[in-house]
Amino acid sequence: xxxxxxxxxxxxxxxxxxxxxxxxxxxxxxxxxxxxxxxxxxxxxxxxxxxxxxxxxxxxxxxxxxxxxxxxxxxxxxxxxxxxxxxxxxxxxxxxxxxxxxxxxxxxxxxxxxxxxxxxxxxxxxxxxxxxxxxxxxxxxxxxxxxxxxxxxxxxxxxxxxxxxxxxxxxxxxxxxxxxxxxxxxxxxxxxxxxxxxxxxxxxxxxxxxxxxxxxxxxxxxxxxxxxxxxxxxxxxxxxxxxxxxxxxxxxxxxxxxxxxxxxxxxxxxxxxxxxxxxxxxxxxxxxxxxxxxxxxxxxxxxxxxxxxxxxxxxxxxxxxxxxxxxxxxxxxxx
Amino acid sequence: xxxxxxxxxxxxxxxxxxxxxxxxxxxxxxxxxxxxxxxxxxxxxxxxxxxxxxxxxxxxxxxxxxxxxxxxxxxxxxxxxxxxxxxxxxxxxxxxxxxxxxxxxxxxxxxxxxxxxxxxxxxxxxxxxxxxxxxxxxxxxxxxxxxxxxxxxxxxxxxxxxxxxxxxxxxxxxxxxxxxxxxxxxxxxxxxxxxxxxxxxxxxxxxxxxxxxxxxxxxxxxxxxxxxxxxxxxxxxxxxxxxxxxxxxxxxxxxxxxxxxxxxxxxxxxxxxxxxxxxxxxxxxxxxxxxxxxxxxxxxxxxxx
Lengths: 335, 305
Fold this sequence. Notes:
The structure holds two protein chains of two kinds.
Chain A: H1 2-29, H2 44-54, H3 60-84, H4 104-139, H5 144-158, H6 161-175, H7 192-229, H8 232-239, H9 244-282, H10 287-296, H11 300-328
Helix pairs in contact in A: 1-3, 1-11, 4-5, 4-7, 4-9, 5-7, 6-7, 6-9, 7-9, 8-9, 9-10, 9-11, 10-11
Chain B: H1 12-22, H2 24-41, H3 43-46, H4 58-64, H5 84-119, H6 121-135, H7 139-158, H8 160-174, H9 178-191, H10 195-202, H11 207-218, H12 220-243, H13 255-262, H14 271-298
Helix pairs in contact in B: 1-14, 2-5, 2-14, 5-6, 5-8, 5-9, 5-12, 5-13, 7-8, 9-12, 10-11, 12-13, 12-14, 13-14
């Protein structure tokens, strides 16, 4: 298992490097060199340091390596300094957001918790809705419940989240006034009253995202359970005289959840992508909203950093999916 | 001598159509899609109102703003007094065109890469690694960044309308070919071992002609399914871009853009986001159901049951 994990870890590194190259080149080759566009509001001495850190007049490959150095060497040092009060970084130039003139990672550190709360809850709710639907649809294939489940999943794929989100706002926030339309990021949960407020403001965005996720996961669960229901071991279990409940919930479910778990891990990045839209609708001050905001004011360092963070998340969850699969299904490890 | 009665040979596509007709959801979706196509393609020939017409007389224009449904404007007018029905028809044309063209771009790239990877063993590992790399890219953020970086430059060369169209179509195509490539590669890997390919090889057919003649015609069915699903995904992606304000310019409405424009007046005129939203959802739902039906119909193991 250890060699398997190590091998997967090692393959993740070149992927990450290539992705960073793609992101770097995309921004670098765009019309108007990013460095020539540092806004005049940035103080001259900071400007000079940024030019030097990024190697303004160097060839592309050198600039790329310097950019990587900022990302993988300087920023982690600051992170360690922040945790333990050490001084590894020694005042090296950080990645500075042009708009707010604070380090990009500081902005991301402030925004990420909002995104994680909403996205994480939504994903959890989505999974909790999807699994029972998928299992029961497979168990009663072609029943009315299965047909309804298929339609529900199809609708979940097809109706865009920005539409469901706005319709929910229209009905439940504007017309009925049950939920707030705007997400208050300043809210801290200290007592029951603020906890209740938190639940209320999270209800709509979580519903939107959860429905979208549930559609996909329920489909996968259904097909996975269907595949397992025809296996020989199910017949054996039934022949031994086990109750249907045990057969379904113990034997079949355990085996069919293996691919579902990987699908769940692989779906995480898509969920973050979907969060960009949802954050925009409900005015949640998360990392997706930060990206849109940065794009609208041409804040290139922040754009590059957030895009790359998304890439890191994707590679990370691919890795987790691979390793989980290896743990759950030992046959995979010896490929 | 008794004459042997042979049944008329049935073509593969007749079989597929016969199976497709059994899928009730797909048939309903096909009818729905045809209705939508008639609405956006033939509708403007009947409803001859210019979607971008703004009354030049200011006093009159103010009277025409934000009207509710009436015989003159069945879906009302927007904040500049433009006819919503005409805008919906016009926007639908663009949304559907973006979906179709982006799908074709994605399929072209995906099929080429899939066939090359499946047929030539030397290219296989490299091309599949490229595919995996693309699958690991954060696509929506990258699309947004691409739109932001290249929109002005391309608009300057080709004009805002054609420029944005080409940019969106290319960007969506370049970021969504991976599934098609994987499916095609798998099919080609299996096809390449079949007898008819061996026969073609043994009479000295060059690789190029084997691919074009024998392989491509046989991967048609998975490609068709990928195509329908690709249209649906492309329409959604375009509307997401427009919704985030990084799609088409305002005087060039698409369904996503109309929805984006309607957000500001969501409290007072909710119907302005409902119509384009329903249009997008129905189109995508219909296309997805057709894809589902096609998949069943094209699978010879299911067909005939």
